[in-house]
Amino acid sequence: MLTNVAEKTEKSVAEKIRDGDLLTLAEAAPHLGQKNHWGVRNLINYCGLPTVRFGKRGIRIDPADIQDWKMKHREVVTY
């Protein structure tokens, strides 16, 4: 007989953004116009995208930082 087994449920990216949870590089990529996590790494290394680091390898991005960074780097193009 099975008792109440807690199922591990993952939050969707939309739920993480709504709740203010940190995103992985792969989850943040589409919101930054990148195809994968390597494009996000380039934005971090060369364009100053803010991150939260855990040890040497753990990198997460705050959704609020994505919005602030996008507003700061917005350009108006006129012809």
Report on the structure:
- With 79 residues, this protein is mostly helical.
- It is 41% helix and 8% strand.
- It has four helices and two strands.
- A hairpin with a 3-residue loop joins strand 1 (52-54) and strand 2.
- The protein is globular, with a radius of gyration of 16 Å.
- It starts with 12 loop residues before the first helix and ends in a 7-residue tail after the last helix.
- The mean pLDDT is 86.
N-to-C CA distance = 71 Å
Structural Rg: 16 Å
Order of helices and strands: HHHEEH
H/I helix tally: 4
Question: What is the strand content?
Answer: 5-15%
- Counted beta strands: 2
Lateral arrangement of strands in the main beta sheet: 1-2
**Structural class, from secondary structure content?**
mainly alpha
Helix content: 40-55%
Biggest sheet layout: 2 strands, antiparallel
Shape summary:
globular
Mean pLDDT: 86
Spans where pLDDT lies below 50 across 5 or more residues: none
Task: Indicate the topology.
Elements (H helix, E strand, L loop, with lengths): L12 H7 L5 H4 L8 H11 L4 E3 L3 E3 L2 H10 L7
Brief account:
The chain is built from 4 helices and 2 strands, in the order H-H-H-E-E-H. The protein has helices at residues 13-19, 25-28, 37-47, 63-72, and strands at 52-54, 58-60.
What are the key terms here?
single chain; 79 residues; mainly alpha; two-stranded antiparallel sheet
